Amino acid sequence: MESAGVVAAFWILSATTVAGALLVLLSRNLLHALVFLVLSFLGTAGLFLTLSADFLAVAQVLIYAGAISVLIVFAIMLTPLASRDNASSLYAAPGVLLGAAIAALVAFTALDVGWPELEGAALDARGFGSTVARIGELLLGQYVLAFEVASVLLLFALIGAIVLVREDEPAPAGAEGGGGEQGRAP
Amino acid sequence: MTGEVATGEVQPGVGEPYILNIGPQHPSTHGVFRLRVAMDGERIVDMDMIVGYLHRSMEKLAEERTYTQNIPFTDRADYLAAMSGNLGLCLAAERLAGVEVPGRATVLRVIFAELQRIASHAMGNGTLVSDAGAWQTPLLYMFRERERILDLFEMTCGARLTTNYMRIGGVAFDPPPEFFPKLESLLDDLPARVDEYADLLVDNEIFLARTRGVGVISAADAINGSLTGPQLRGSGVPWDLRKAEPYCGYDRYDFEIPVGRQGDVYDRFMVRMEEVRQSTRIIRQALAALPGGPHKTEVPLALRPEPGEVYGRVEGPRGEVGFYLVSDGGPAPYRFHLRAPSLINLSLLKKLAVGASLPDAVVTLGSLDIVVGEIDR
Amino acid sequence: MSAVPDFASPGVDGAADERAARPSPLAALRGLGLGRLLMLGGALLVVGAANAAIGYVIVDGRLEGEWYDLRDLGLAVGRLRTELDAEFDPAVSYWVTAILGAAGILVFIGGVLLLGSWIERRLLARFQIRRGPNRVGPFGLLQPLADAIKLMQKEVLMPRGADRLLYVIPPLAVFIPAVLAWGPVPWAPNMTYLDINVGVLYVIAVSSLGVLALFMAGWASNNHYALLGAMRTVAMMVSYEIPISLALLSVVLMTGTLQLSEIVAWQEEHRLWLGLLLPVALVTFFFSSTAEINRTPNDIAEAESEIVAGYHTEYSGMKAGLFMAVELGNAVVVGALVATLFLGGWSLFGLETWVPPYLVLGAKTGAIYFVLVWLRGTLPRFRLDQLMAFAWKFLIPISIANVAVVAVEASIFARLDVAAIVPLAAFTAINLALAAAVVRFALPASGGPRGAPPALRRPVLTTAVGGLRAAQRMRVSP
After folding, report:
1. C308–chain A nearest CA distance, Å
2. Most buried among A41, B139, B164, C311, using CB within 10 Å?
3. How far lies C241's CA from each of A46, C201, C285, C304, in Å?
């Protein structure tokens, strides 16, 4: 059904993604962790590609590997305690709980959805189609409410960041840059 | 917009300043000069200026040599303006020993000192613009004329940089015949060339943004800091030894001194540009007035001035080049002191740079036009 | 007027005086010498004649149906694919053509890196009244090769205290995106290696990948200069990616596609360069790109006179060489993108049927690259805070306004039922007028010309002498 190339790509990308994620947890150095996180992001983008979701793949690289990682850099560099490494902390327990909950949610979704398998002409028709237009229509049509709520949430985050930083000094670039990045997403 | 460094600035390790060693080997320290800078992000919070890497003990060595033997030292103090250094020492020694200088030598001295001023300002302004980030182009443009001036030096005295040209009682050599046509053609070209630099830089938005309002020295600060030369005149103080205390017959020449309006880096740049034009004027007049006759009076090789002291000073490209000589009647000076304008001009850098951003400090340092050979001696 | 008579000797010929080094870069042609000029002209003639011959053969239709077409190497690859498909599994042709294309791009990039650095150095030398590299090989053409060999032989040092992992990754991690960015560039109607329908997004995404690598390089070097350079890079890229995205957004709005080949096709169909239709977007994109790729006047991330070499201060040998190569490669990529997005890509008003379209694109790319080198040879550098203020306070608001204007125009364009030429001509006029208004009014208001008019910036000329009081007097009555 699928060519050997796609299967091989899937396994390699999955291994990269999972290994990257694990290394994020295991590495003690925050910036090393960031590099592995980007590796994981890139693996995910590759997985999107094998699913013919070109827009998602590119957006994943652009927003996560490109922009979010830079924001994390800013966060690390602007945090006074950044020299503290990735040591164990009290937040481990809630973190594990949260992670488990998300994993359960994803697993439930994966198992619950009946994945339709397309063959032949239908598969060709769906190939690298114009997913951008379709996603745009869905976002501004069927899911417009969720989309707007997300925008408002991001706006709140933006204003909140400015308010938080305002107190002592004019806002440093990190907050401003971050706000800009998120603000343009909606 | 100028002056403040705020927007978009990221500070590694918030709050705690970190130390940056600028130099002794750095593209914009103009020689082996070191700045130890405490920085908060891009802003300079404290600064140590560390000099002495080029110290050669000139002033002490000078006490072991005759006055004539000391002339080469002045080449190597301010090596970008050797003629001015030569001239300063010769004038001081002549006054100490009461030596008369023939008219031809005096006019030749003016010609060479002014040529040296043009060459030095070409270098000073060129490196200033390089410090502002123009990748060498203005510097090399300015080097065209400097190159021709150095050619003139070479054909006259055999050296391009360390000229050792002036002598007590005159100048070492008369310029060869081919010197004068070459000088004429240089003088014909110079005004157009200066306009060309001006086209490139004077109204350049980026250059204005980098230099206007940066490194401002008020007139009072400039005077209190003992600044001299374009650094002083850039701040609006009309003080030029060629006018204030004319030597070598400068009172006979018709020229003006340019004076800046607000004392920033841009003004110092512009003052130097204008001084190049004025020097051209002076050289033209000097050429027209060049008398015949000997270029040197014979003085004994081991000159023994009467015991006494003298302070002779000339207006070099960087300011007042002063020589304090004490004679005990022997052939060598008892005390030899060089008032190096670069050292004194540099002393204001800390005041200008602390609180400014690193790029501004670099441009400010460039506008002070230091020569480390003269600072360390 | 001079005293020459005293010394004039009849043998001296004033005219033989080498009348100064060359007066201006414009006169550099004279310096090339007649012989070289003739050689250059001859070479151009031969190439042109060959091209005309090829064009004649192609347009004449004599090669129609043959297995290759010099105008469009994509057709040749397509033909190869059908031939392979006839004999083997489809996967074989897929892999073969993919590898062929990738090899083609790599060879091209190699050529660009070797030739580009020679061109840049020679051009800069011309701008600076120098000669440039002219010793290794004919015209110094082998100089880049010699430099590369030298760099590879050099010892690669790692500073003490450097972060080993993060120090080793960056040279590679910046090189890969620089290569990847060439993927979706359309060279000819059928000659695009990666003709994906999110091409514009892909370009932004790939270019944003380099940022982190540059930061890593600066951070891992354990050097304050490098860290300053890294911080500047990150701050600048985060700021300038927004105007770039907005400029590209207006292109996408107007053409209605994210596919680079479609954008070129749109420009060809309407016989209109997007740079004319969207001048603000063009200028924004070009200026922001110079910030992204660290070129003058925005090369603050490696400002030599301030922070030595910025993020790659501590790199030596071929590692430093890779950083420099990437810088050069990125400049050429920017040239190709500007040409593709704003200057009609491979199309040139019909000329592309006579000359292979990839040569047209190459020429346009070269022209943009020339402008970049020209800027480098001319302009001083901005300060970090000035660049940031310019991005956030001027470029981004202007870009947002531009996107709004273009959105309105695009929706009018889509709904209007007249010949495309009418609304497009109107929009071009409107947008050019708006751009002129921005330059005339908004730009000066953004902290533009500093204060005094030119006459008041000139120094005062005086013959007076005095101290502080004289200075105060002069200030009062200049």
Report:
1. 22
2. C311
3. 23, 12, 9, 24
